[in-house]
From TrEMBL:
Coiled coil: none
Ranges of residues in domain Glycerol-3-phosphate dehydrogenase NAD-dependent N-terminal: 15-189
Protein name: Glycerol-3-phosphate dehydrogenase [NAD(+)]
Gene Ontology annotations of biological process type: carbohydrate metabolic process; glycerol-3-phosphate catabolic process
Catalytic site positions: K224 (proton acceptor)
One GO molecular-function entry: protein homodimerization activity
Organism of derivation: Morus notabilis
Chain positions recorded as substrate binding sites: K139, R288, N289
Pfam short name (any one): NAD_Gly3P_dh_C
Length: 376
């Protein structure tokens, strides 16, 4: 007797990566190295590419598939032959949309700059069926009338998916060349699903730990970019290491207070995971937000972040400036501006209302910050 369709159905998980920038490409590489060896996953990893034409006239997708390299966002690194670039969002996620028999527990990894996620979700609404699990590697938030919306919540609400997060001290170019680092998966309820994500991302040089605190992990990853902008101002003004350490400490305190005031469920221990203090340190020492903010301060705030981003990052996106604006909106709306002088000052400097030197003059308002301490 022929096996039933149920019996024929694959029980392996299929992974699609939505995004192919610097971190998106590294994430695809990490995952692809694991799907080849883990029996519970299909080898092939689809990677959705926001299509663009390179100076050579070729499409980025064609070049990635021909050379196995993302020549624009991660040059010099082979992604793995089982990574297939696809410019068609609906097609890249085909396995998610045609989730036959309910046995193919597919996995969707979102990793684009956060400002594009609302549009991407709109394109996917109603198209994802079956037991699909999602994870967001995206740092940032959307601010809506009703308040801030984390990207994992946007994905859950718009696509009806359970969504974990993965954040950490993860400068993509360092992981691309397999230097040791750590990351944190934040999950809501299912430890089993969290462990599956841990398995999918872990390698001997990339150690992943799961904690039950989606909001805490995601807010750490999001807010540290604002502190990195402040650290960049300090560097650009050549204020030295003590000042930078002070700004990082004040920033960490505001990160914790803001997170806990928004979500009382956020755990103190999360700030000691890779997604917390470790990510804050690496971003303030080496990330792109720090670098562009350094240039902004050296230019006395006379060249805009947009201009510097276009000139210095070659298509990569800054997250800290838009996150500072979003955080500022939340602070203004809730009457919390005075409680978060560092966050507020970063935004005021970014939009030119204060000079870069204000980062030290305005950030250290201890009496008001102590209010925050009491309220958390
Ligand atoms: N790069 C890192 O080191 C790093 C590390 C950890 C987390 N992250 C986070 O990962 C996320 C993705 O960052 P990244 O480094 O992969 O990207 P990136 O900044 O390197 O690249 C920008 C990407 O956005 C795409 N894009 C441009 N216009 C678009 C549009 N209209 N719609 C959709 N996509 C568009 C580009 O094609 C490109 O893939 C961000 O939230 C970032 O904060 C980055």
């Amino acid at each position: 007797m022929a096996p039933s369709m149920e019996e024929e159905a694959p029980s392996k998980s299929r992974v699609t990566v939505v995004g192919s920038g610097n971190w998106g490409s590294v994430a695809a590489k990490l995952i692809a190295s694991n799907t080849l060896t883990l029996p519970s996953f299909h080898d092939e990893v689809r990677m959705w590419v926001f299509e663009e034409t390179l100076p050579s006239g070729e499409k980025l997708t064609d070049v990635i598939n021909r050379t196995n390299e993302n020549v624009k966002y991660l040059p010099g690194i082979k992604l793995g032959k089982n990574v297939i670039a696809d410019p068609d969002l609906e097609n890249a996620g085909r396995s998610m949309f045609l989730c036959f028999y309910g046995t193919d527990a597919n996995m969707l990894v979102f990793v684009t700059p956060h400002q594009f996620m609302e549009g991407i979700c709109k394109r996917l609404v109603g198209k994802i069926k079956g037991d699909v699990e999602a994870i967001s590697l995206i740092k940032g938030m959307e601010v809506k009338m009703e308040g801030p919306c984390m990207i994992s919540t946007l994905i859950s609400q718009q696509l009806g998916l359970n969504c974990c997060v993965l954040m950490g001290a993860n400068i993509a170019n360092e992981i691309a060349v397999e230097k040791f680092s750590e990351a944190t998966v934040g999950y809501r309820e299912s430890r089993e699903i969290a462990e599956k994500w841990v398995q999918l991302f872990s390698t001997p040089y990339f150690i992943v730990t799961a904690v039950q605190d989606v909001e805490g992990v995601e807010l750490c990853g999001t807010l540290k970019n604002v502190v990195a902008i402040a650290a960049g101002f300090v560097d650009g003004l050549e204020m030295g290491n003590n000042t930078k350490a002070a700004i990082m400490r004040i920033g960490l305190r505001e990160m914790k207070a803001f997170s806990k005031m928004l979500f009382s469920s956020v755990k103190d221990s999360t700030f000691f995971e890779s997604c917390g203090v470790a990510d804050l340190i690496t971003t303030c020492l080496g990330g792109r937000n720090r670098k562009v903010a350094d240039a902004f301060a050296r230019n006395g705030g006379k060249r805009s972040f947009d201009e510097l981003e276009a000139e210095m990052l070659q298509g990569q996106k800054l997250q800290g400036v838009s996150t500072a604006r979003e955080v500022y909106e939340v602070l203004s709306h809730r009457g919390w501006l005075e409680l978060f002088p560092l966050f507020a000052t970063v935004h005021e400097i970014c939009v030119g209302r204060l000079p870069p030197s204000a980062i030290v003059e305005h950030s250290e308002r201890i009496p008001k910050l102590s209010l925050v301490e009491k309220s958390t």
